[in-house]
Amino acid sequence: MVIGGGIVGLAVAAELASRGDRVTVLEKEGRWGAHQTGHNSNVVHAGLYYRPGSLKARMSVAGNASMIAFARAHGVPVEVCGKLVVATSADEVPRLKALAERAEANGVPAKLISAAEAREYEPEVACVAALRVESTGIIDFPAVCDALAGRLSEHDLRLHSPALAIRPAPGGVEVATPGGVVRADALVNCAGLHSDRVARLAGLTPAARIVPFRGEYFELRRPSLVRGLIYPVPDPTLPFLGVHLTRMLDGSVHCGPNAVLALRREGYRWRDFSLTDVADVARFPGTWRLARRYARTGAEEVLRSLSRKRFAASLARLVPAVREDDLVRAEAGVRAQAMLPDGSLVDDFLIETADRQVHVLNAPSPAATGSLEIAKHVADRLG
Ligand SMILES: Cc1cc2nc3c(=O)[nH]c(=O)nc-3n(C[C@H](O)[C@H](O)[C@H](O)COP(=O)(O)OP(=O)(O)OC[C@H]3O[C@@H](n4cnc5c(N)ncnc54)[C@H](O)[C@@H]3O)c2cc1C
């Protein structure tokens, strides 16, 4: 049984089915990929950012190839358009060079290019140097979910079916749902923003807690300013910060995401608030340690969330022609980011095993890209 019908859960279910298992998928919402999978940048990452040898590095590089192949084989829209990471000032160049070395270590083809060469790809970009990565693509991840669900038509797929309680049973587990108790000989937790809670329901006491970080987007009124994907040089300590410009498959250009603490695990707007979720975050010692460590960065992210002018200014560092009135608010997403009690953010994918159980406890970006690889890893661990 797989709990969670996002891209990771469905990929795991499809992988188990391909190995001959009968699979049940429980998804609490009325459609597949309703949360992180349906609210992201839809980028098939190349795998250049991640620590060599980490699960993220291995699974994004392999996942880039397997996801693109899967999409092509199943009629899912995908385009390998490549991307530019741009250094906007001389002090960013050493970090850009370090990124090029990391790309090489991860086996990702990437080329350092001059500002003039960068403008051949993106005429409106402002930079002093750039890294060109050819294997990055754009895709429709919800369509990938539908294709995966389509491959599971002979199996037991249940929408509107939250897992409410889990208890061990002879030879496996029993899971209570509003429709009754479902039995299985093995359990995989792919519950994304609720993965720590589902792990606790199953009797684990994971050290890490999910902290929800909302990522807000704007759509560019003048999409002609951007041809492909333009990213800033990441800050190695907080790599998910830094808004980028992403051309989508329909030709629109999305700008974002930023990162602000969400006041509900599935809180897509500032007014979405859950006392349980806020209390959960507030009681966790890691939150306060993180807040102290990054007070200034956090405050800047909140200000940028509240001010379209600031958001536009961040984008204008990459593409100076972007103005405040070019930005139209688009749907946000919420990242499920695992945090440890010492306030550190879990960097790599985190997958824990218990008797007849596998729990995916940290699967932030690039887990959609790497989902087919995560699925193989999880199926191997189930044995
Ligand atoms: C703003 C943003 C931008 C991103 N950009 C990219 C990108 O460009 N490329 C990329 O590769 N990755 C990106 N990511 C990351 C990517 O979206 C996630 O890594 C991926 O979608 C995780 O998939 P998942 O199946 O683990 O989680 P989810 O898609 O969140 O699925 C978990 C599912 O579990 C269900 N669930 C929870 N609790 C229960 C329960 N008790 N019972 C039953 N069901 C339950 C939920 O309803 C949900 O549908 C981005 C993420 C965000 C938020």
From TrEMBL:
InterPro entries xref list: FAD-dep_OxRdtase, FAD/NAD-bd_sf
MF terms (GO), sorted A to Z: (S)-2-hydroxyglutarate dehydrogenase activity
Essential cofactor(s): FAD
Name this protein carries in UniProt: L-2-hydroxyglutarate oxidase
Flavoprotein listed as a keyword: yes
Record keywords: FAD, Flavoprotein, Oxidoreductase
Domain annotation FAD dependent oxidoreductase: ranges: 2-381
NCBIfam families per the UniProt record, alphabetical: PRK11728.1
Family to which this protein belongs: Belongs to the L2HGDH family.
The keyword Iron belongs to this UniProt entry's keyword annotation: no
GO cellular component: cytoplasm
